[in-house]
Amino acid sequence: MAELEYRKEDKIAFFTINRPEALNALNIQVNRELGEAMADFQNDDSVWVGIITGAGDKAFCAGADIKETLPYLKENSQKMWNFPRSHTRRMDIWKPLIAAIKGFCLGGGLEVALGCDIRIVGENARLGLPEVTLGLIPGDGGTQRLPRVIPTCKAAEMLFTGKLIDAQEAYRIGLVNAVVPVEQVMPAAIEMAQSICKAAPLAVRAAKQAMLRGREMPLDDGLRLEYMLNAYCTSTEDFEEGTKAFVEKRKPSFKAK
Ligand code: CO8
Q1: With a 6 A CB cut-off, is 25 part of the ligand 1 pocket?
Q2: Strands (E), the chain
Q3: Does 67 contact ligand 1 (Cβ within 6 A)?
Q4: Which end of the chain, N or C, is less surrounded by CB atoms within 10 Å?
Q5: What's the predicted TM-score (pTM) here?
Q6: What is the DSSP letter of 50?
Q7: Is 31:80 a contact under the CB 8 Å cutoff?
Q8: pLDDT digit string (tens) for 21-72?
Q9: Whose CA is nearest to atom 19 of ligand 1?
Q10: Which domains does the chain have, with CATH numbers?
Q11: Nearest-CA neighbor of 59 among 2, 111, 19, 6?
């Protein structure tokens, strides 16, 4: 069976890391399959939002597989382009991604979640970047994305001690959007995805691109980018439909065109 389950339903793509016996740790195969599924997600017009989760309730993902992936990284340390690329290494996935997190979300697992735009966690979630306790630093975006999401002093504490935080602390510092009972994690993520799917998808993608690219630019350049993306939105059929539906007092029917 695939170590990453990938399915599509009603405009939503579901990615489930399926190695519960190893707390869904990321071995090379999962990384490869996640990268391939992400490429399909990006190119398939029928899916508008992605949800990433882990099989079972005990872990979203306990990080890179310490027995397989870390030795691979050591052997290939001068050939990082050999490592399969997923959304954590790509800056061109403009469809929204939601992480639905139960239990442990550690190391490379938290980096997978940080590569998502929205994080919903269960009350049993424990999050952290324990890499320094192994003699490493987070190598899949953790040192870069965490301080862009939470205050630097909190990121420093997590990065330098490797200590785990619980769901409420993650919510308090702004690392996650919501804390819900464990059985509500996937329903809450689906509700969020459905709510995004009610909006015009090309506009949503433009908003994500403006938000993420703009964050790295001087304000003046960011405002220019926003202007250009908005000009693009006004050229879409969905913009015609959205404004027409408002005037006609009906729900819009968006087509991602
Ligand atoms: N890798 C491999 N196997 C794991 C991992 C892991 N990360 N985490 C857990 N497992 C396995 C255990 O070995 C165990 O297997 P077995 O039953 O065969 O011995 C099984 O999962 C269950 O785990 P535990 O018995 O340890 O369960 P506990 O509830 O006692 O403990 C913990 C849970 C606290 C989560 C504990 O398992 C743990 O500390 N795991 C390691 C967490 C960690 O350090 N993660 C960071 C890894 S490094 C990383 O992610 C770097 C990413 C860099 C990416 C770079 C890309 C370019």
Answers
A1: yes
A2: 4-9, 12-17, 49-54, 59-61, 97-101, 104-106, 118-122, 126-128, 165-166, 178-180
A3: yes
A4: N
A5: 0.97
A6: E
A7: no
A8: 999 999 999 999 999 999 999 999 999 999 999 999 999 999 999 999 999 8
A9: 22
A10: 4-197 (3.90.226.10), 201-248 (1.10.12.10)
A11: 19
Active-site choice (33, 111, 226, 241): 111
Residue 83 — very low, low, confident or very high, per pLDDT cuts 50/70/90? confident
- CB 26 near ligand 1, within 6 Å: no
Whose Cα sits closest to atom 1 in ligand 1? 65
Q: What is the dihedral of CA 165, 169, 175, 176, to 10 degrees?
A: 110
CA 72 and chain centroid, separation = 24
Pick from 3, 18, 19, 23 the residue to mutate for probing ligand 1's pocket: most ligand atoms within 8 Å of its CB: 23
> Which is nearest to 61 in space by CA: 11, 115, 9?
115
User: Which helix (H) or strand (E) is 190 found in, with range?
Assistant: helix 185-197
111 given a catalytic annotation: yes
Write the burial class of residue 98 (CB in 10 Å: 0-12 exposed, 13-18 middle, 19+ buried).
buried
Q: Using CA atoms, how far apart are residues 185 and 178, in angstroms rounded to an integer?
A: 9
165 DSSP β-pair partners: 127
CA distances from 2 to 16, 19, 30 (A): 10, 9, 8
